[in-house]
């Protein structure tokens, strides 16, 4: 496959059961967008696990490229150089220990620990906004989507990456609720967390995502809006599963 990209192996469609249910006959794709801190990764993982699908957080890909660019000392404002680096790297996506979440590997190295570096977090938005970078990432993400059996989340999945996904979801929640969730998460990890600062950061990120010149965050016209402010992540996942199963009912198996 071009660019050294290796897609994950697909599970057998027959004979596998999750909670007593057989996987759907045709392995479709679910695309999910939404602002920061809304729970897309948690919900996406729950949905993928129930269906026997894979889950991909596309933000990890941009952070991985940011890590490699910083490691090589590239100018993060040089979009052409960043795009060349992205195409030169060997990208692989392998299921993690749970067999559901796809982990990004670059040149044979897993990026999970590296992308948690504060410098990566601070600079990933600069890298992800470059047109050449987004074009290449879009190619990789579409290859994964074409393979089917995947739940993919990000900022432009329903609008740009997988506009023909079997189900498109826009997950939202109020800034206050997202800030509360993030505050609880950090404190549970033993870290200091200031609710006001976290809320300000979320509102700022929302503005940046909406005003971004390249593929801004917006709800696709045919995406289902789910406000999770007063819902648990499990309730959101169950709602998505019901929608997906209803949409896929009666679809014949692929030959």
Q: Could you walk me through the main structural features you see in this protein, from its secondary elements to its overall organization?
A:
- Mean pLDDT is 88; it is low at 9-24.
- The chain has two domains: 28-45 and 155-245, Rossmann fold (3-Layer(aba) Sandwich), CATH 3.40.50.300; 54-147, Rossmann fold, CATH 3.40.50.
- The protein is built from nine helices and eight strands.
- It has 255 residues and is α/β, with parallel strands linked by helices.
- 45% of the residues lie in helices and 14% in strands.
- The protein is globular and about 50 Å long.
- The two termini are 22 Å apart.
- The strands form two sheets. A five-stranded parallel β-sheet has the order 2-6-1-7-8, sandwiched between helices. Strands 3-4-5 form a three-stranded antiparallel β-sheet, covered by helices on one side.
């Amino acid at each position: 496959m071009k660019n050294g990209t290796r897609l994950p192996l697909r599970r057998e469609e027959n004979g596998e059961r999750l909670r007593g249910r057989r996987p759907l006959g045709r392995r479709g794709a679910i695309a999910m967008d939404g602002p920061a801190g809304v729970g897309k990764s948690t919900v996406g993982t729950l949905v993928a696990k129930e269906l026997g699908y894979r889950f991909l957080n596309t933000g990890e890909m941009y952070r991985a490229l940011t890590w490699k660019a910083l490691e090589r000392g590239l100018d993060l404002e040089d979009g052409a150089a960043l795009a060349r680096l992205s195409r030169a790297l060997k990208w692989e996506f392998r299921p993690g220990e749970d067999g559901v979440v796809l982990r990004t590997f670059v040149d044979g190295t897993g990026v999970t620990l590296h992308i948690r570096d504060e410098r990566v977090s601070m600079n990933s938005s600069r890298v992800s906004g470059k047109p050449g970078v987004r074009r290449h990432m879009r190619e990789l993400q579409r290859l994964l989507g074409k393979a089917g059996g995947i739940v993919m989340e990000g900022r432009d999945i329903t609008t740009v990456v997988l506009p023909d996904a079997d189900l498109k979801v826009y997950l939202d929640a109020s800034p206050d609720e997202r800030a509360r969730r993030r505050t609880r998460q950090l404190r549970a990890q033993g870290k200091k967390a200031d609710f006001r600062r976290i809320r300000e950061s979320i509102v700022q990120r929302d503005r940046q995502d909406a005003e971004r010149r390249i593929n801004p965050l917006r709800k696709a016209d045919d995406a289902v809006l789910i406000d999770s402010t007063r819902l648990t992540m499990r309730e959101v996942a169950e709602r998505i599963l019901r929608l997906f199963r209803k949409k896929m009912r009666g679809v014949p198996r692929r030959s």
